[in-house]
Design brief:
The protein has 15 helices and 51 strands. By secondary structure, it is α+β, with helices and mostly antiparallel strands. It is globular, with a radius of gyration of 28 Å.
C-alpha cells in the first residue's frame, strides 16, 4: 500500500485489485463494520475510468480510480442495512449470487432479520453504476440504508439549499454548527421538504470527484459524519432504494451526467434575466409615498413603483403581483382579480408592458378557493384529506386546473410565482392520492408535480414565453421552473444564507436562482440593503421586494429616504441589465450541459484547499468573480484570488496574480468584482455608470475581451442561435473571431497600444477621439490610462490586433 502525492485535496490510497478483500477488511475494522468472509465471492467490474469490486457475505463495494488506483468510495461489509421503525440496524447478511449478466451486473439475495432483500448491482456506463436494494413489500417507516467510509479531509456538497442558523425564526433549531458553511460534512439532514427555503435533492458531490444520487422520493436521513466522523450514513423509507454512483472526475462532468439523468434545467424566456420588482401586499391608496395625490387609474403602489423606478433611472423588466391579488377573503378566489385593489387589471398589465417594457407575474398556490374549489370538490380533483389542495397525480384534475389559468393569460400575464407547496400538503401514509401513492411518498415530489402542471398551462397558452418560479423544488423540478430562495431573513445572517443557498442550489442542479433582495422582511440596516443589492446583481435572477417597504425612496429603516440605497439599486440594476447577454448565455449553457451559473470556487479549483469551504466568493458564469461585503459597516475586505490572472472590475489597468489574498477597498457603493484572465463577456451597455461602457458606447451591443495568454472561448446564445466567440493571444497578436455573431458589435479589448488593427483582412483607422469614433462606420480608439482599445466590428467579423 503506497501513499502518493496529494490529489483533489485528499490522500488517495494506491492498491492492487488483488488486495481488495484485505483492504476491505482493514477498512471495516477501522470503521467498525464486518470483514468479508474468507470464502466470500468477489466480482471485479472494470471500465476505462473505474475499477469496482463487489464482495459478498457481507456485501461490500470498493471503487477505485483507474488513473492512479486511488480509492474513491468504499461501502464496507455490513454497510448496507435495514432498520425497522423501533429497532436497531440490521446489516445485510448471507448474501448469495442470484443472477449475473456478463461483466455488467450481478444480483444478490440477502437477509436482514426476517426480511429478504434483493441487491442488484449494474454498471451503467464507464463512469456510473447503480446499486438497488429492494424488499418484497413496503413496511411503514422501515428504512433501507447505506453506510460509506468517510475519510478525513473529505467534503460534501449539495443535498439541500437551506442553511441552518439562517436567522429566520424557527429555523435555528437544527444543526447551528453548520451555520454559514458550504461543506455539509459534520451535519445531519432530513430529506423532507420544509418551508420556506425549500430546494431539496438526494444528491451530493464529494470532494474526491464522485457523486451519489438516491433515486427516490420517500423521506430520508443523512448523517454526514455527525454521529461518527468516519461514517456517512444515508437511509430512506420505502420498499426500494436505488443509488447511482457518478464519477467525474471534475464537478463539471458530474453535473453533466447527473443532469442528463434527472433532467436539465429549464431555459426561461430572455426577459427572466431582467431585474424584477414586487411587493408582498399592494394596497390601493389615494396618495403616494410623499402624500401627493395618486393620479393613475391603476393600483397606487404599482403606479408609484413604476414612476419612481423611471425617475431614478433604475432599469426593471419584470413586475410581479403577490397575494392578495384576487377576489375573496384570502385574496385568491377563482383566478379573478379584485378590482377594488387592482382597478382595470387588463389595462394595467398592458400599461406595464407597452409603456414600461415590463412583463407581469402573479402569485399562485397549489390550492383553490371560491366557486372553483366547490367545482373541484364535486369532481374529485382535491387531494386526500384536504378541502382545497389539488391532486396533481390525477390527469383530469391537472387538465382542468390548467384551463382555469386561461382567465389570467387572457389578460397577458406572463408567468407565475409558485408558493406554499411544502406547507399544507397531505403527507401521511393514510393520505392516498389518485395514482395510489401515499402522501408520505409524494410529499417531496409534490413541488415537482406542481411546477410541471403550471409549466403545462404556460405551454398551452403562451408557449416558451412564460416563467414559472417556485421556492420549493425536488429532483426533476428544474426541468419546469426557475427558483427563488424563499422567505430569507432580512439580516446579515440571512444574506450569508442566501449566498450559500445559491451555491448549494447550483451544485444540486438548480442553476437559475435568486433571493429576495434585502430579505423577505424589511432590511435591518441601510448597509444590509445595499450590500444585498450588490450580491443579487451577480445572481441569475435579481428580484427586489418583500414584506414591508423594499423601496429605498420610502425605506422601512433609517434614513427613510435612502439616497445610498437608491444609488446602489440603480448602479447594480444597471450592472445586472448590462450583463443580460452574458447571463442568458449562461442560462443556456446550464440548460444544454447542466453546468452551474453561480459557481462556488471549489467547483473550478477543487485542488485548492483554501476554497474547499469558501462561500463568500463565487464565479458568476465562467469569468466574473464576486466578493460581496457581508459584515455591517465594513468598507474593505480580504479577497482571495485563485490561480490565474485577474483584473479589478473597477480599475482594469492593473493585473493581479492568483493564489494569494488581497485587501480590497469596498466603499458602500462598491462590491469587489474581479474579471478572470481570458474572459469574453457580451454586454448590453446602457451608459457609463457601471464602468462597462462610456458615453460614446451608450445603448450598444458590446463584447469585452481580457487577454491573458493562450486561447479562450464563449458561446453566446440569443434568439435560438448559438454564436461561438473566440480569442487567442500570441506574443505578436491578439486574434478575435466574432464571425458567428450576426450583428455589429463594439469590441472592448484590454491591451497595450496596438501597432495596427485589421477587421476581416482590412486595416482600419485609429480615430482621433471618442467623438469621431462614435460617428465613424469603422475604426478604433485606444484609451492609454485604461489600457484598452475599442473597435467597431461589423456582423460576422474577424479581428487581428498587432501588438
Amino acid at each position: 500500500m503506497i501513499i502518493q502525492t496529494k490529489r483533489r485535496g485528499v490522500l488517495p490510497v494506491r492498491l492492487s485489485t488483488k488486495t481488495t478483500l484485505l483492504i476491505s477488511c482493514l477498512a471495516a475494522i477501522a470503521f467498525t463494520f464486518s470483514c468479508p468472509a474468507a470464502n466470500a465471492a468477489s466480482y471485479l467490474f472494470k471500465t476505462p475510468a473505474l475499477n469496482v469490486t463487489v464482495s459478498s457475505d457481507p456485501l461490500g463495494v470498493i471503487v477505485t480510480d483507474v488513473r492512479d488506483e486511488s480509492v474513491l468510495a468504499h461501502v464496507p461489509g455490513s454497510g448496507l442495512y435495514v432498520q425497522p421503525p423501533d429497532g436497531p440496524i440490521a446489516p445485510l447478511s448471507g448474501c448469495k449470487e442470484k443472477t449475473k449478466r456478463g461483466d455488467k451486473s450481478v444480483v444478490f439475495t440477502c437477509t436482514a432479520n426476517t426480511d429478504e432483500i434483493t441487491v442488484a448491482f449494474e454498471m451503467l456506463n464507464d463512469y456510473e453504476f447503480s446499486m438497488t436494494m429492494e424488499t418484497p413489500q413496503h413496511k411503514s417507516a422501515r428504512r433501507l440504508g447505506h453506510r460509506f467510509a468517510l475519510p478525513a479531509g473529505e467534503s460534501i456538497y449539495g443535498i439541500k439549499e437551506h442553511v441552518e442558523g439562517d436567522g429566520k425564526s424557527g429555523s435555528d433549531a437544527g444543526d447551528v454548527k453548520h451555520y454559514a458553511t458550504l461543506d455539509q460534512r459534520g451535519s445531519r439532514v432530513e430529506m423532507y421538504t420544509r418551508p420556506t427555503v425549500s430546494i431539496y435533492s438526494p444528491f451530493h458531490i464529494n470532494s474526491r470527484g464522485y457523486a451519489l444520487f438516491f433515486d427516490t422520493s420517500w423521506p430520508g436521513w443523512y448523517d454526514l459524519g455527525d454521529t461518527d466522523p468516519d461514517v456517512l450514513d444515508v437511509s430512506f423509507e420505502g420498499a426500494r432504494l436505488s443509488m447511482v454512483f457518478t464519477f467525474g472526475p471534475g464537478m463539471e462532468q458530474i453535473l453533466e451526467r447527473h443532469s442528463a439523468r434527472v433532467g436539465r434545467s429549464l431555459l426561461p424566456p430572455k426577459w427572466a434575466a431582467e431585474v424584477f420588482k414586487w411587493r408582498d401586499d399592494h394596497i390601493n391608496l389615494t396618495v403616494l409615498y410623499d402624500n401627493s395625490i395618486d393620479p393613475s387609474p391603476y393600483n397606487s403602489m404599482v403606479y408609484e413603483d413604476i414612476m419612481m423606478l423611471r425617475k431614478l433611472g433604475i432599469p426593471t423588466g419584470v413586475y410581479w403581483l403577490d397575494r392578495p391579488w384576487a377576489k375573496g377573503p384570502f385574496g385568491y378566489d377563482d383566478f379573478t382579480f379584485d378590482e377594488n385593489r387592482f382597478p382595470k387589471p387588463k389595462e394595467m398589465i398592458e400599461w406595464l408592458l407597452d409603456k414600461n417594457g415590463m412583463e407581469t407575474l402573479l402569485w399562485v398556490a397549489p390550492w383553490i378557493y371560491g366557486e372553483t374549489r366547490e367545482l373541484a370538490q364535486k369532481r374529485g380533483y382535491i387531494a386526500p384529506n384536504s378541502d382545497k389542495v389539488i391532486d396533481f397525480t390525477n390527469p383530469d384534475a391537472v387538465t382542468w386546473w390548467q384551463s382555469e389559468y386561461k382567465k389570467v393569460f387572457d389578460l397577458n400575464v406572463a408567468g407565475f410565482k409558485l408558493d406554499r407547496c411544502e406547507e399544507v400538503i397531505p403527507s401521511t401514509e393514510q393520505d392516498i392520492y389518485f395514482d395510489g401513492r401515499s402522501g408520505r411518498e409524494l410529499h417531496n415530489l409534490y413541488p415537482m408535480l406542481y411546477a410541471k402542471a403550471v409549466q403545462g398551462a404556460c405551454q398551452k397558452y403562451r408557449g416558451d414565453d412564460c416563467l414559472v418560479m417556485p421556492r420549493s423544488g425536488f429532483t426533476g423540478s428544474q426541468q419546469y421552473a426557475v427558483f427563488w430562495g424563499g422567505d430569507t431573513h432580512p439580516s446579515w445572517r440571512g444574506l450569508r444564507s442566501a449566498i450559500i443557498s445559491a451555491e448549494r442550489a447550483n451544485l444540486m442542479g438548480f442553476p437559475v436562482w435568486g433571493s429576495d433582495t434585502g430579505g423577505y422582511g424589511v432590511s435591518e440596516t441601510q448597509d444590509l440593503f445595499s450590500r444585498w443589492m450588490q450580491a443579487s446583481s451577480l445572481h441569475p435572477i435579481m428580484e427586489v421586494g418583500g414584506s414591508g417597504s423594499h423601496e429605498p425612496w420610502n425605506a422601512g429603516y433609517e434614513p427613510n429616504y435612502d439616497q445610498i440605497g437608491i444609488d446602489n439599486y440603480r448602479i447594480y440594476a444597471k450592472l445586472h441589465t448590462e450583463l443580460i447577454p452574458y447571463n442568458y448565455s449562461a442560462m443556456y449553457e446550464a440548460h444544454d450541459t447542466g453546468h452551474p451559473i453561480v459557481r462556488a470556487l471549489v467547483y473550478e479549483w477543487p485542488e485548492d484547499a483554501r476554497v474547499r469551504d469558501m462561500w463568500d466568493e463565487w464565479l458568476f458564469g465562467n469569468w466574473i468573480l464576486a466578493a460581496p461585503v457581508t459584515v455591517q459597516g465594513a468598507r474593505s475586505r480580504e479577497v482571495y484570488l485563485p490561480q490565474g490572472t485577474w483584473f479589478d472590475f473597477w480599475d482594469m489597468k492593473d493585473e493581479y496574480q492568483g493564489n494569494r489574498n488581497y485587501l480590497v477597498d469596498a466603499p458602500i457603493t462598491r462590491m469587489p468584482i474581479f474579471i478572470r484572465g481570458g474572459a469574453i463577456i457580451p454586454l448590453k451597455i446602457l451608459d457609463a455608470e457601471t464602468g462597462w461602457g462610456a458615453e460614446f458606447t451608450k445603448d450598444a451591443f458590446a463584447i469585452a475581451f481580457f487577454p491573458a495568454g493562450g486561447e479562450s472561448s464563449f458561446l453566446l446564445y440569443d434568439n435560438g442561435k448559438e454564436m461561438p466567440v473566440t480569442m487567442k493571444e500570441t506574443e505578436e497578436q491578439i486574434l478575435i473571431d466574432t464571425s458567428a455573431v450576426a450583428e455589429p458589435a463594439l469590441l472592448r479589448v484590454r491591451a497595450m497600444k496596438p501597432r495596427s488593427i485589421s477587421v476581416n483582412g482590412k486595416e482600419i483607422e485609429k480615430c482621433r477621439d471618442e467623438k469621431e469614433f462614435a460617428a465613424a462606420a469603422a475604426g478604433y480608439t485606444w484609451d492609454s490610462p485604461a489600457r484598452e482599445v475599442w473597435i467597431k466590428v461589423p456582423a460576422n467579423g474577424k479581428v487581428v490586433i498587432d501588438k
